[in-house]
Amino acid sequence: MESEGFVTLMQYSGARVSETSLNDSIELMQVRRGLEVMAARLAAEARGGAQASALMDVVERGKQAGRAKQLKQLPKLIMEFHGLVAKASGNRQLEDTLRLVLQRISWGFELDLRERIESSWLDHWTIATAIISGAPLQAGLLMDEHISKDELLYRRKYRASNGEEAQVVEGLNRN
Fold first, then answer.
1. CA 175/CA 73 separation, integer angstroms
2. Alpha helices by DSSP H, the chain
3. Which are the contacts of 79, defined by CB distance < 8 A and separation ≥ 6?
4. Pairing relation of β-strands 14-17 and 7-10?
5. CB-CB contact of 34 with 28 (8 Å)
6. Residue 11 confidence class, pLDDT cut points 50, 70, 90
7. Residue ranges of the domains in the chain?
8. Separation of alpha carbons 34 and 140, rounded Å
9. Which CATH code fits 7-168?
10. Fewest beta carbons within 10 Å, which of 4, 42, 62, 153?
11. Which residues contact residue 148 at a Cβ distance below 8 angstroms, ignoring those fewer than 6 apart?
């Protein structure tokens, strides 16, 4: 994570989240939200297209992994779900761009997994259901709410790991 600029190693003090990492991560989450909302809306216009059954399948596998407390499986399933929504949008450019953004922030899918297993997969289920039902506005709103939770989690984690950066985080929360 140091080589990607996410953390700064400090001799005898451990590691702390890099200041640029805070800003970059929040900005990437904002970009992600816009792209994923668009992807969900487009996917719903097509009722999930060829990805409809795969969306429900990954949600079921995610719920099963969550019930079995198979935490190591969940980040991969989360990525798969979001990738399928992008693919179901039918917009290849959106899919490619979103893939790059998700790769850069995918480490966040491992944050607080145990605490958010049920709510995360309930979110995924409601989003998938809205997509398959052909409800673009609902799918977009649900995706926006879902990504907002991830963004809030990122902000809290930065605040906890870098007490002195709390003011920066608070300032971003006002925007």
1. 35
2. 19-45, 52-67, 74-88, 92-105, 113-132, 136-161, 166-173
3. 102, 106, 109
4. antiparallel
5. no
6. low
7. 7-168
8. 9
9. 1.20.120.530
10. 4
11. 33
Span 33-52, pLDDT tens digits = 999 999 999 999 999 999 99
CA–CA gap between residue 5 and residue 107 (Å, rounded) = 13
C-alpha–C-alpha distance, residues 118 and 126, integer Å: 12
Contact in structure between 126 and 61 (CB atoms under 8 Å) = no
The position carrying tokens 């997509």 is: 131
Rounded to the nearest angstrom, the gap between the alpha carbon of residue 162 and the centroid of all alpha carbons in its chain is 22
CB 106 within 8 A of CB 75: yes
Residue 162 confidence (pLDDT): 57
CA dist., res. 89 & res. 83, Å (int): 10
Q: Which amino acid is at 159?
A: R
